[in-house]
Amino acid sequence: MRRRDRQSTEAALIKAAMAEFVNKGYDAATTRGIADAAGCSEVLIQRYFNGKEGLLLAVMRDAQTEAGLAEFMQRPLCATLFDEARDLMTKAMESFEAKSGPMRIALSRAMHDSAFSEDLAKISVRNELKRGLRQRLIRYQREGMMDADVDINAAVELLLTMNFQIGFIYPVLLQATHTKQRRLIEQFAAAFAKAMAPSDASA
User: Fold this and answer.
1) Last residue of a domain, one of 32, 47, 62
2) What does pTM read for this prediction?
């Protein structure tokens, strides 16, 4: 019972903190305000999360949870590299949309606090995504669908960069609409497929 009570309290604090951080910003949000919104004691924030910064990390850990990521990365290979890149960026667009608020707060703090930046990197799903992508691209290369001379690690980094552009930079910083994002996904996917195509492939 006690463990379930703690889990439910932590969940309530994380939910309240996400709303407070997004609506007020990290600096203006207070642990008292978060605790009041969660309906629990402010002392529990220190006990469960080691303070406001730990609570922000918990918010990001919760936001970074990718439902179905493993299954997505293990799905059958697509018919073309264009389809692979388009599917990946479409998933990124949907995923980032759900977590763009807390991510904006966390990235802002990370730029001014190297210790927080290191802690944030530890809970990122980027490494999991990177491993999955690398395994998929190796399979495409073995199937002859990707140029044999392509550096797989560089190709993975390119896809991750495109993901971040589509999912965060364009909608959050450049205020791109969904229509604009989807058009960019098509363009980025076409560029990726062309760059990765076997050298003897017909134009």
Assistant:
1) 62
2) 0.78
